[in-house]
Amino acid sequence: MMESSTPNGENLSDLARLIGDLEQDRGWLLEQIDRGRWPDLRLDLAALERELGQLLVRAAERLENDGQRT
Questions:
Q1: pLDDT tens, residue order, the chain (70 aa)
Q2: N or C, which end of the chain is more exposed by having fewer CB within 10 Å?
């Protein structure tokens, strides 16, 4: 069964927590890249980090907008 397109308060809280956790992971990844870990993957990891950052910003904005509607 599919969830409705408008998440309830509990789902919004879970999504906000997930976004926060992913932001922390993104920060850790960026720190590792800056420290020179995985030099052969640096460019790919940096691109992934940027895309993840953009995705998380959009997700947080959408979550905020959805939260204002409920």
A1: 444 455 577 888 899 999 999 999 999 999 999 999 999 999 999 999 999 999 999 999 998 887 777 6
A2: N
